[in-house]
Amino acid sequence: MARHETTPSQTVGPYLHIGLPWPDGPFAVAEGTPEGVWIRGVLYDGAGAPVPDGLIETWQADPEGRFNHPDDPRGAVERPGFRAFGRCPTDANGEYGIFTLKPGPVPGPGGRLQAPHIDVSVFARGMLHRTVTRVYFPEEAAANAADPVLSSVPEPERATLVARPAEDGYRFDIRLQGEDETVFFDV
Question: According to DSSP H, which parts of the chain are helical?
């Protein structure tokens, strides 16, 4: 059987910083916004090593649980200064950070409210497609317990979706494989 080496066109990374720049980068709101929080973490590979050439994207509702998007069933609502989107490459230590506002609850399947969460896409070397996960907030215990998506994830894996409090916001490490692998959704 012939063996063929992988070419750059067959893998996503390490070319993310070339092909996916974003002018506002990690700032879903302007730096220094009073109610802004950081979501920071490290992207780890299956061996537990930091991934220095990954890319983290976030998409979320505003603090009232609204989207400035025509698909919001309640109608698009613009919040000046809030983009709802952030993109941050990982650094040499696999670290990333997104500065944003904590989202509010949004409608979910069957009209049930979903707990406040942030959708996260992960791009990294060796992956042909992004992986998608969510960040939930630890102080939202009742909303998290009732969330139709989060409650569909069995324990103890559910814990991989809940951020930890940090001095300037939240900590959310992402593990692509292996022990304590982050739960990813098939979207």
Answer: 16-19, 141-146
Residue 86: exposed, middle, or buried by beta-carbon count in 10 A (0-12, 13-18, 19+)? Answer: buried
Give the model confidence (pLDDT) of 7-55 as tens digits.
444 455 555 555 566 667 899 999 999 999 999 999 999 999 999 989 9
What's the rounded Cα separation, in Å, for the pair 93 and 111? 41
Q: Are strands 37-44 and 169-171 parallel, antiparallel or unpaired?
A: parallel
SS3 (DSSP) at 81: coil
* CB-CB contact of 56 with 88 (8 Å): yes
How far is the C-alpha of 95 from the C-alpha of 105, rounded, in Å?
A: 28
d(CA 141, CA 12): 36
